[in-house]
Structure formats: C-alpha cells, structure tokens
Amino acid sequence: MSKSSGQGMCNRGPPRLLIGREGGESRELDEGDMRSISGHYGEDEEEDQSKRQIVVGICSMMKKSTSKPMTEILERLCKFEYITVDVFPEEVILNEPVEKWPLCDCLISFHSKGFPLDKAVNYAKLRNPLHINDLNMQYFIQDRREVYRILQEEGIDLPRYAVLNRDPDRPEECNLVESEDHVEVNGEVFHKPFVEKPVSAEDHNVYIYYPTSAGGGSQRLFRKIGSRSSVYSPESTVRKTGSYIYEEFMATDGTDVKVYTVGPDYAHAEARKSPALDGKVERDSEGKEIRYPVMLTAMEKLVARKVCLAFKQTVCGFDLLRANGHSFVCDVNGFSFVKNSMKYYDDCAKVLGNMVMRELAPQFHIPWSIPMEAEDIPIVPTTSGTMMELRCVIAVIRHGDRTPKQKMKMEVRNALFFDLFEKYGGYKTGKLKLKKPKQLQEVLDIARQLLAELVLHNDCEIEEKKSKLEQLKTVLEM
Length: 478
Ligand SMILES: Nc1ncnc2c1ncn2[C@@H]1O[C@H](COP(=O)(O)OP(=O)(O)OP(=O)(O)O)[C@@H](O)[C@H]1O
Ligand SMILES: [Mg+2]
Prior knowledge:
By secondary structure, this protein is α+β, with helices and mostly antiparallel strands.
C-alpha cells in the first residue's frame, strides 16, 4: 500500500457518505437520499485544515458501487469518526479526465466489465492515495495464465496445468495432440476428466471433459443464468479456437470453497454447490444461492494470507478446491464482497476503517489506536441462550509440594554460647551465622557438654531446657 500526500487535521463531523463530488461541490447520500453539502474541498481548504476528514474514494462501476454489500459496508465505514466516504460517479469515471476526478486520501478501486483501469492507474499516479487494492495487479487478475503463474511463484497449491496459446506469432506454444481419453498440451498429458478454461478470467465458459468410461461428453459452465450454471454437452472434443488452460480435474465433495479476504489476517469462507455437477443452482425459499458454512484450516488461512499479499488485494475473493486432503486454488477474482452476511459487513468495515486510520491517522495528526470495542467481547448464541465464549485459558502453574521448614528456636543463657558468639565476631553486628562444619561441631560440643553436666548434677545452674538441648544435639548429629 502506498501513502497519500494529503495533510491536515480533521474534525469530528457526523458520518458522511458522499456521492458525486467534483471540484468544490459535494453531494451527500443520506438514507438513499442525495442532498448537497458544500465547502468540503473549497478554495479555503488551506486555511481550514482543522475541518479535514480522511476521504475514502470509491472508484468502480456503478453496478458495484451501489451494490447491496458495498452500500452496507460503506454505511458502516463512514461511521468512523474521521472517515468520509466519497463514491465517484460512473459518469465522471467514464467521461471526465482523471484531473477532474474527486480527490481522496485512500482509494478503493477495482476493475469490472467496462471499467477504465488505465484511467484509474493514471488517477492513482496523479494523486498518490493509499490503495486498498493495488490497481496494476488487476491487469494480471484478468488473465488466468498470470494468476496461475503468480500462485505458482508463491508456492500456493494449484491444479497441475498447461497453457495452450493460439498466438500466430508464437506457434511453438500451440502443440495439441488429442485422443479419445486424453489431450497432450505442449507435451504434457491430461487424462479425462480434465478442465479447459479460457485464458481470459472474464470468460466464464469453462468446460469439463468426461472420460468415455463415464459416458464421455462434457459439462459446459457459464455465468449463472437463473437456476442454471452449466449444461451437459455430448461434445467430447476440445475447442479449436482461442487460447486455453488445461488442468487436471480435482475431485471434491461436490462443493467449491469461496474465500473472501479483508487484509492478510481476515478471511471469510463459505461453500457452494459446484457448477460442475449438474448445473442446477441450489436456491433457498428467498431465491438466494444456498451456502454451506466452512471453517478454514490453518493451512487454508495461510493460503488466504498469501493470496491477499501476492495479488496486493486487501479485499480479495478466490476459490479453493478441497481434494485428496489438500486445498488447491483454482481461481482468484480480486475485489469481491461476501453477500448477505451482516457479520461480514460489520467485520469488513471495521477492518478497512482500522486499516485506513492506522495508515493515515499520523499524517492527519489524529491520535489513533485500535479500540477495544463491545463487539470484541466474545458473546455467542448457543442452544441454551447467549453466553461468553471461552477463547483461551492462560495459566501460570507450580507444584503444591513444599519442603517443611527445618527450624528450631532456643533461648541460650550459658556462657559457653556467649563465648562462641564472641569468638566468631557476633558482637560486631549483633548477630551471627554459623555454617561451617567446624563451627557446628563446636555448637554440638557445647550441647553435649551441657547435657552431660545436667545428667551429673540435677541442680546445677544450667538454665537451658534439657529437651531443647537434646533436640539441638540430635539435629546437629544428623
Ligand atoms: N481443476 C478443477 N477441478 C475441479 N473442478 C474445477 C477445477 N477448476 C474449476 N473447477 C470448477 O469449475 C468452476 C469454475 O471454475 P473457475 O472458478 O476457475 O472459473 P470462473 O468462471 O473464473 O469462476 P468465477 O465465477 O468464480 O469467476 C469452479 O467453481 C469449480 O467448481
Ligand atoms: Mg471461480
């Protein structure tokens, strides 16, 4: 991500979602209603730096900018106190020179059909905002050959594949040998079932060829039309015009895992019925495509991280095929939001907002640290009501065994003890510690001597208790 050169302090304004701002004029989208606000980027900008908000520009085709997930996420994003969201109008993107495009500090821009990516790249060069999704990488994402090359370079598992380029300038890249149950692409053999994908990632006419043992023919996938995503064809021979990737068919449980990243540390995943099965799209009573919950493994989370970073796309969708105990990436789509998930909308806006604040707050002189929010408290619904989810236990543990104290206290009055006290310099500090065997022997000798005298003369002047002297003797003898 590169940083913007924007500067200035910002104020604590109400959440703002702007649409259609150009030069000194802005229009604010308020619950679907546009009304004019002014002075956002007026001529007095220099004098009024204290009013400056961080502007996040949304530059994409209208179909994407006004989609349900985008609207949901932008509404949440502009709740950040210092963030204003500005949606670039499609008309401006398509018809105005980039010099006339609205200014922004952070740019969320992505290619889709009809989007002038070259212009967006020029705009980014001109204004140098912070990028959420890198624009140059979006050229690669449109070409399956480049996507696979990058995946391979990053050491990410993908199906074994070969490229058949039908380029008249490079005939050496077009060696196809076809027989009933396999193809040989530039020397590499693919047995049926195999998959044939147009090199353009925008072309969704992916074909899967069945072996004769399964009745032959092929399954032709296409962009969903109503309740269909593919259709069976009796055609068993591969396409002879256009350039394709051929790859081995990975046998899954019949579902595709769709992964959606928001930065390298966040990924949502869900499974859908593979269009390669019978082509009938599974829909619920509301007509929404049925999705199955998925928990990503640690390995898959690492793959998500790698994909997000390798393609420099903070918001990035890709497909995983779980087969033979491994997960293979078969498609990277770039910018893509999860649909119909409030949790994702919340999380996504939060991650993006925090990212923008973390990157830009310093130059805007906004003191910023990622806040601990109420939502972070792990309260989960369960069958027996909501409760706190135990996330971890941290313990510092020691054993309970303790060595019993080996101490004895004894009052002494006999001069022999005082002589010993003096002999070892006890009067200098008022206390004395005797540790050496010789010294302890001397204490033992005194104890023995006093005990002997006590035995001989019961009425002698020894004031120490006999029992104490015996204890002292026993301990020292031990
Ligand atoms: N190697 C493979 N093995 C098995 N199935 C595959 C393989 N490659 C693709 N598929 C199936 O074909 C479907 C379409 O393939 P892929 O995702 O590459 O094409 P796409 O048209 O770019 O898809 P999208 O609509 O996600 O952009 C996948 O969702 C998957 O079900
Ligand atoms: Mg796909």
